[in-house]
Amino acid sequence: MGKAETRFLAKIAGRATFTIEAARDALAYARAGSAQKFLERLQEKGWIKRVRRGRFAVIPLSSGEGRTPQLHEFIVAMELVTPAAIAYWSALNHHGLTEQLPRAVFIATDHPVRRPPKQVLGVNYKLISLKPAKFFGVVKDWIDEQPFQVTDKEKTIVDGLDLPQYVGGVDEIAKALAGNWSELDETKLRHYAGKIGNSAVAKRLGFLLETLKLGDPEALRKAVSIAPGFSPLDPTLPKRGKYNRRWGLLVNIETRAAFSIWPPYGCV
Asked: Which of 110, 194, 212, 206 is nearest to 155 (CA)?
C-alpha cells in the first residue's frame, strides 16, 4: 500500500461508510474523476468495498480471508436509502418480540425506490416503500457504537397487522402481544392503529386483544372507527373460515396448539 493510500484509509476509517465526495475532500482532489480512480485502485487491492453506487466501506485488516467490511447489517441498511428504518420482521426480532430470525433485513422508507437493493455484502435486504403518512414511530438505537433508526415496539406491532406478509403472518403478532404485553404502551398502540390509515389494523388488533384478554378492547373501539365489511384476519392465508361480526373479520387462522387463544372466541 502506498503512502497516499495509507493516509487516506487512516482519515476515512472512523466512518461506517463514505462517499466519493468525502473521499475527494480527504484526498484534497479537485476532480471527482481522480478520486474515483483512486477508489477503484483501493477496491482492486481489497482495502475498500462498494456498499452501493457512490458509497464505500473500509475493509479492516481484522476481516481475515473473507475481506469484507465488518459492518452490522443494520448500519449498512441505513446507507441504502434515506430515510430508512429497520422494520417489520427485523424490528420484531430486534425488540425481542419474536425468536424467529428473518432471512432478510427489512427496511422501511417513505418513498418509492426505483432499484431497491436485494443483496449487499452477502446479506439479503427487503425494502418496503410506504406512503409518507405511514412512516412514523421511528426511534434511534445503537449497535457497535453506530446509530440506526428502527420502528418502536408499538409501531412494529401495528406494521405487522397492516402488512402481515412482512412479519411471518398475524400469528407472529399474536405471539408478540401475548408474550410481551407488559412492555407495550396500550395508549400508543391505539393511537398508531388509527394513524396507520388501514381499518383492518384496528379490527385485527381489537380481535387479538379481546381473544388474548389483554388491555381494553372497548377503548380501542371508541378511539378508532371500524369500517364496515369484513377483512381477513390474516391476508396471507386462504380466505375461508368463520366471520366475527363484532370486529368485522373473517377469522381464517386455524387452531394453533401453541396458543390457548385458539380456536378464536366470538366467531359466528
From this structure: 194
At position 112, the amino acid (one-letter code) is P
Q: How many residues does the chain have?
A: 268
Question: Where in the chain do CATH 1.10.10.10 domains reside?
Answer: 3-66
Asked if residue 175 lies in contact with residue 116, where contact means CB atoms within 8 angstroms, the answer is no
Question: Phi, psi (5° rounding) for residue 202?
Answer: -65, -40
What's the helix, strand, coil split of the chain in %, to 5?
A: 40, 20, 40
* Residue of 195, 227, 217 lying closest to 265 (CA atoms): 217
Residue 144: burial class (beta carbons within 10 Å; 0-12, 13-18, 19+):
exposed
Beta pairing class for 249-251 and 231-232: parallel
Q: What is the DSSP string of 95-124?
A: TTS-S---SSEEEEESS--SS---EETTEE
CATH of the domain spanning 3-66: 1.10.10.10
Predicted pLDDT at 31: 67
SS3 124: strand
pLDDT lower than 50: segments of the chain:
255-259, 262-268
The pTM assigned to this predicted structure is 0.83
What pLDDT is stored for residue 66 in this prediction? Answer: 54
